[in-house]
Queue: 4 jobs
Job 1
Amino acid sequence: MKTIIKIILLFSLLAPTNFANLILIVHKDFPINSISKNDLKRIYSNKMKIWSHGGSVVRVLLKRGRIHKKFCKLIKNSPSNLRRFWKKQIFTGRGLAPKSFISQKDIVEFVSSNRSAIAYVDSSTDIDSVKAIELK
């Protein structure tokens, strides 16, 4: 019985960090408050290169981790397929590599200084310097 209680306690302590939500972020002055899943997929598959309000799309990715895997699942891709896709885009001259970071803090800092960037972070990340947008 004590073992079961310890296991339940362990899972309850781990739950908040393991199941954090993914948040899409953009620059504070970004004129859009939401984006469709389809548009998000088009952005990260290099089919949407210009924002509807003007300006080139600047894609930002985490290099790896749980949130990156969650994002890839959201756009119906795998981390390895996404990496291969972008290597092919670069090699064939069809696109520039997305900006990629190891740290979510670095992503927030980059997005806060780039008006055309779109990225994703964990809901536990401090995003006061950027704007969260809704996924439709």
Note: The CA atoms of residues 28 and 86 lie 27 Å apart.
Job 2
Amino acid sequence: MARSEPLRVRHRRWCTTRREFLELAGCGFCWLAWHALQAAEVPAGNPLAAKPSHFPAKARSVIWIFIEGGPSHIDLFDPKPTLAKLHGQPLPPSFKRPITPMGVTAHSPLLASKRTFRQFGQSGIWVSDWLPEIAQCVDDLCVIRSCYADGLNHVGSVCQMNTGSILAGRPSLGAWTLYGLGSANENLPGFVVLQDYPEEPAGGSRNWGTGFMPATWQGTRFREGDSPVLYLRPSEPISQQRRRLDFIQQLNRLHAEQRREDSELEARIAAYELAFRMQAAAPEVVDLSRETEETKRLYGLDRPETERMARCCLLARRLVERGVRFVQIYCGSGSKWDAHSDVEGNHSRLCRASDRPIAALLKDLKRRGMLDSTLVVWAGEFGRTPMSESGNGRDHNPYGFSVWLAGGGIRGGLSYGATDELGLYAVENRVHVHDLHATILHCLGLDHRKLTYFYNGREERPTLNGGRVLREILA
């Protein structure tokens, strides 16, 4: 067989044939496969060990209050006088008719808000009378009125607000945080999930899962009520339990050596160790009776209507106080803010239950000197439409809605972005979910473009292929 012309390679003194080139290239493909397998494994040593940030961080922890079901921005933080003038009329022809889950909503008459709005604080931020306690904290808030997302239903939208994608299978933002920074307290989970009601949020545990990453960095869900963590009291002497666990872990390690691709097994091994250490640390952190009576009243633990959220918010403060990186509170868990009918009754009840505890969390963090190092996020999966549904409710609106951030490197007393005169579409300084995630990670000292995980042949990052840091709202 005739030899082909030599392939010349720059900066090399040798040349090779096409057949030899393919042999060398084949070795390269093997190396790529090996690299992918290596990247898929949990790092050697303790995968939850604290790691340095990309740059100096303003925030050490995040408390995300997830308003599940979709709060109505035009009844809470985004007053629309024009909507009041056009109440009962159809959507003006100048507006593009939106796609909504209940398609008839796009042709329904406009529904004015019945709330009274006032400006509060030195910043003069508008807040409705549904949130009188949070209104007293506005100078610490940055209210973003121009957020938008891609999903229409709860499952996809809750998933995107947590993972960046409306499709399942990606790591949650809390998991990315724990992967990037590790845990600051080896005796407690680095990522904790709290709920005010036992019903799971739309999509369930995937909202705090790790997707394609090892399960080691997933969130740990605490139960609602007085006993958020089960089996904290050992039934045998601690020394005997330690010997038993050491033997079990030895068997687990031998088993894991034969199943290196099983990240669930690695996560389980780490969970056993964490559970043992938590028997010393967790009983103290979940014991709210150690708080002063003044603090309990501040949060609303003494009131039936606020007790559930008060417990979550106070426990969140105690967790970040002890180094937990990421705490997510599901407020209205089970899509309770989903006001397709009777938005007045629905939001009145839920605001009454959450306003005082959330404001207390902000005040308590601030008086303890912790607000500057704790980023508090208030956001649901989308907002509500200015058009009515069922005559007195509102449909889903991912096209323009409000969220707010406080502390941890965020400028307080700031309103950012705007929706149109009816509150339907974000039109000024639009903020996508990826932008929100990029900004949260930035406050933690993480560059969302450099926080990557090699999976399926490419470097994946939290914000997929988008996202920008909202530097205009940074302190």
Note: The mean pLDDT is 88.
Job 3
Amino acid sequence: MQILLDTNFILTCVKQKIDIDESLNNLTSEPIEYLIPQDVLNEIEKLKQKNSTKTTATLSQQILQTLNPKIIDLPTKNPNVDVKIANYLLSKEVDKKPGFLILATLDKNLKQRVKNKILTIRNKTHLEFI
């Protein structure tokens, strides 16, 4: 199973002290491959420059290193990362393939735009598939 991580999901897991890998391993016994768009890494790097998000962004980068994600490029030229993610997922038709791709996001608009299974945070304490 592949898990595509978006920026807000990662930052919120850090803020809520949710261990992404441990929580996912409690949800599934399938092998997990983490995917992270280069655009998401760029957003996190920009957040390190702001005093209000510097600590969270730095911790997010450290956690991502432990997850050893596969870095992917989103080919769409749209500057909005959520639009790029949606276009990427819609182009994959992943819901028809075994070993499907799950989107890890908290963004309501993004959840509505894609047909993929979603990994989200419930009650600020745990991860859940929807």
Note: The radius of gyration is 14 Å.
Job 4
Amino acid sequence: MLAAVVEAMGYELVGVEFHAHRDNALLRIYVDNENGISLDDCQRVSHQLSGVLDVEEPVTGRYTLEVSSPGLDRPLFDAAHFNRFAGSEVRIQLRELLDGRRKLVGRLLGMRDDNVAIMDSEGREWRVPLDRIEKARLVPEL
């Protein structure tokens, strides 16, 4: 539903995060464009999505809608993102321990079958099932 609105406006829906809180949840929408994202772009998308969310009501209770660019530490949500940014430095937080670790940092190698592959600084290749990743972000290289 959100992707259709965002893409019709000429933007890419990078991903959606929902953080439930007792009093007021947060619905964060990441959008991008080949020319980058400005504050005006975020406001336009927010206005359109607010109308759709008010009508469709996919979120119950109070929530704050936040529309944002992915930024330099861009979040990675799906297999296409992990392939697109292969070669970049990435920080991954896992849902559960993998060989005693919950956090991995290394060079993203892309997808290998249904696993995200990264090479850590010690030269070890890690393969992580996509569904075991809680969060993944690019590490800005300045």
Note: The mean pLDDT is 93.
